[in-house]
Write a structure and sequence with these properties.
ABC_MlaE_roteobac, mainly alpha, single chain
Length: 258
């Protein structure tokens, strides 16, 4: 009985949390006109969420591409197909690793920062002060951060992919001696816009919506204490990672399994 009671309570808590996030998303969409009417608010958040995350995204992508190049070359040599290294690295990054890893890194850095920032504003009663001054905090604080994350995520995933392809080139061509023309030609002849690039961008955009929504929701609904902010930031990172992996499975089954 305790197991059934615990399972039921957890299920109800999950449904309530999902409903709360959905209603919060609808509220953001209704108040997004203010963010679009004052684009400087969104541009400023794009800088904090996107530009300041470029370094970690690019460096991580470079090393992931280098690992793919090294492991791919080792495996392809066994089948005497090392000329396909460029295609293998690009396909792995564009279809799967680029959007997923970039989104997880984005959640760990920008997502946690968004939650902490909004949580601190709630703790110091800045959000209540906005309500007193007839300024909607969702329109002024939340919506610009939400759209900044949505716009930034596909760009960061693209930077991750380009850095990863460059990392594969450094290992495969500069280190292991694969022909440069073969590396690029195999990639160009086998990678397609609609199947590989566009689907990867759609994935990253969906991940951007999910991660940013979780981040701003956790910050806006957190307990206004230092411990509450810490727990909300932790929940943002954990929930975002699990959501990204779950969405990745659904999107991969829809896009590439057919």
């Amino acid at each position: 009985m305790n197991f059934i009671r615990t399972t039921g309570a957890n299920t109800l808590a999950f449904i309530r949390a999902l409903g709360s996030v959905t209603l919060f998303l609808l509220q953001i969409l209704r108040k997004s006109a203010t963010a679009f009417a004052r684009p400087r608010l969104t541009v400023r958040q794009v800088y904090f969420a996107g530009v300041l995350s470029v370094l970690i995204i690019a460096v991580s992508g470079l090393f992931v591409g280098m690992v793919l190049g090294l492991q791919g070359y080792t495996q392809l040599v066994k089948f005497k197909a090392e000329s396909a290294l460029g295609f293998m690295v690009a396909a792995s990054l564009l279809r799967e690793l680029g959007p997923v890893l970039a989104a997880i890194l984005f959640a760990s850095s920008a997502g946690g920062a968004m939650t902490s920032e909004i949580g601190l504003m709630k703790t110091t009663e800045q959000l209540e002060a906005m309500n007193v001054m007839a300024v909607d905090p969702v329109a002024r604080v939340v919506a610009p951060r939400f759209w900044a994350g949505v716009f930034s995520m596909p760009l960061l995933a693209s930077i991750f992919n380009m850095a990863g392809i460059a990392g594969g080139y450094l290992v495969g061509v500069q280190w292991l001696g694969l022909d440069s023309g073969t590396y690029w030609s195999q990639m160009q002849s086998n990678i397609t816009w609609s199947y590989d690039i566009a689907n990867g961008l759609i994935k990253s955009a969906v991940f951007g919506v999910a991660v940013t929504l979780i981040a701003v929701h956790q910050g806006f609904r957190c307990v206004p204490t230092s411990e509450g902010i810490l727990r909300a930031s932790t929940r943002t990172v954990v929930s975002s990672a699990l959501t990204i992996l779950a969405l990745d499975f659904v999107l991969t089954a829809w896009m590439f399994a057919a």
